[in-house]
Fold this protein.
Amino acid sequence: MRLRLIPILAGCCVLAVQWRTAAQSPSPTSPSWATKELRAGIIGTDTSHVPQFTKIFNSHPEWKIKVVAAFKGGSPDLPTSANRVEGFARTIHDDHGVELVDTIEALLPKVDVILLESVDGRPHLAQVTPVLKAKKRVFIDKPLAASLADARRIVELSKQTGTPFFSSSSSRFHPDLARMRNNPGVGKVTKVQATYVLNPIQFHPDLFYYGIHGVEALYAVMGTGCVSLTRTVAAGADVSTCKWKDGRTGVYYGIPKADPKLPMITVTGESGTAETTGSGGYDGLVLAIAEFFHTGRAPVDPRETLEIVEFMTAAQVSKERNGAAVSLAGLK
């Protein structure tokens, strides 16, 4: 279509052109898995993931998912939660029009799918139980729980109710990790090391809060199979080393603060090494959540998620036993 401009005022012509250009810009094509409109709800507004994820969903209307309601939650005895829950709730309400409700029971009828975002893993089991019983697909942000016992119960409850969930750190979706998994230049892989900040919080085993980013990246490359783990703690380094059943070695190297010069993942093989840096941001994770909400197919097998929790639990037990080897199969 040809535009006919009447140059009464230069500014008017410019505005007319801008309006027509915007009106004619094609909308992004929806992926094949985005089959219907979905309403998403949030449980727990005490993490920066809440406004970040909401913003990403809103910037991708082709995914057909809109965050419409949230339950604030929060843990008064955990400063990381208590000091942030109100601010992030206000942000998504004021900036994105998200309705705030008083209970999970009030949230569930308003939504089709759930983002369980509570930064504190302790209430995750109690919070996800009514969600799974209501058969609402749910993404459970890291950590899956604050204990191995709770993590196992969540997995079992998902099976009992026939309701899929998935849980993951954003580091798993780093765009370079697929290349790291299948790099022919290194030959047969003998060792994979993940290097990431270790930043413990109260009421959780040490690796559950920030260490999980490195452990998740390690598993994204290694897959399951960790058998026996030892952990050594020294100034400036916290090292958890696990032997895989196929003979490979997986290492989580915890550092006190971020260092962009250090690789997040280093793969060592018989013919060489490969490495990648950076965390990769949230986009890959949120895209995976969107597809999961539509299809019900979890991109991470719950058995792998559970082994990650076992790895981090074994690291805590090994530390408490002064570096003794801990069998994952023997964890209570």
In short: The mean pLDDT is 91. The CA atoms of residues 24 and 266 lie 47 Å apart. The domain at 172-280+310-330 is CATH 3.30.360.10 (Dihydrodipicolinate Reductase; domain 2).
